[in-house]
Write a structure and sequence with these properties.
about 325 residues
Length: about 325
């Protein structure tokens, strides 16, 4: 279970060293099992065909090929991803500059099918910086461990830091030294941190074999920022209309997403609010919000929409979607 503070078992904490203290955001992807599932293979076939038919959809394949050659790691070698962060150190009211406090902690961990060396990681970082004209790459020492720092060329932008596990099978990426130092300390001491109780409770409510698990626990500062934004809409008819859709979210407590990939894909999305009244309002709005959301409209076909159900029990609004290979 993610976030159990204390010494790990004989197998070690593994990728869970990326869990930051009091994490209220967690995204876990079991990409290997997802890709190996029947519906996952079908999705990959469709994606491969789309890239063949539309080269623009595939993106910059030349750049990707160079980075894969330098690192020795292809997309298929990426077996898992874990992202965690503590949102309590974010200033949601910031109108300019960095929203992140100095004590912000957030980590992206990438689990690999084979090891990557620091030389390979350094060369891949150098190519990324070169292709994006995004600054310089240098080695830094964090607690006796060599890590890589990618400094941006633009002022005010955060640097990126990266290091690997001792066996080279996990890459850790952060945007400050504090986060990476924390990972390396937990790795050295073979310990895990404790995520927030609300996040752990949300994860426990998900199917154990789901290949996708994502939880977002809304901090009080975010709810207050939403309330302040709603207050600014008074007297502005256009803004009032838009904010009317957002108003139930002023009581947002959490978002939880899970997906299981077997012969079909089963997706669940739960929104927990502060009251049953706000949940009822959101439940009435969600079908319309889905229809007007560009990302949803582009990804969900009419056949898929037939498999969508909405339920509202107490303060929780739930969406369930089943996708088959025929959709």
């Amino acid at each position: 279970v993610a976030g159990c503070r204390g010494r790990a078992g004989a197998a070690g904490p593994g990728i869970d060293v990326a869990v930051v203290p009091n994490a209220d955001v967690s995204v876990r992807l079991d990409l290997k099992t997802l890709r190996d599932s029947p519906i996952g293979k079908k999705f990959q076939e469709l994606k491969d065909q789309r890239e063949k038919d539309d080269p623009a959809f595939a993106g910059n394949t030349e750049q990707r090929d160079r980075i894969e050659k330098a690192s020795g790691i292809t997309r298929k070698d990426v077996e898992s991803l874990l992202i965690t962060a503590d949102l309590g150190a974010i200033d949601f009211k910031s109108a300019g500059g960095s929203m992140l406090a100095a004590n912000f902690q957030g980590v992206l961990a990438v689990g690999l099918a084979k090891a990557i060396s620091m030389d390979q990681l350094r060369e891949a970082a150098r190519l990324i910086a070169q292709d994006r004209a995004s600054g310089t790459v240098q080695d830094v020492n964090l607690g006796g461990v060599t890590a890589i720092k990618l400094s941006p060329s633009a002022a005010g932008q955060p640097s990126a830091y990266a290091a690997t596990s001792p066996d080279g099978r996990i890459i850790y990426i952060t945007i400050n030294e504090l986060s990476l130092t924390g990972v390396l300390t937990r790795q050295r001491e073979a310990t895990r941190e404790r995520a927030s109780p609300a996040l752990l409770e949300a994860e426990r409510g998900m199917p154990s074999d789901a290949q996708v698990k994502a939880v977002f626990i809304a901090p009080e500062a975010l709810r207050q920022a939403i309330k302040d934004k709603l207050a600014t809409a008074d007297g502005n008819p256009a803004a009032t209309l838009v904010m009317g859709f957002i108003k139930p979210l002023e009581g947002l407590r959490s978002l939880a997403l899970h997906a299981e990939f077997t012969q079909q894909a089963r997706v669940g999305f739960d929104v927990t609010l502060d009251s049953a009244d706000n949940a009822t309002r959101l439940a009435m709005l969600m079908p319309g919000l889905m229809a007007f959301a560009p990302a949803v409209a582009a990804a969900v076909t009419p056949d898929m929409m037939k498999g969508v159900t909405f339920t509202n029990i107490g303060p929780v609004v739930s969406l369930r979607l089943t996708i088959t290979e025929h959709d």
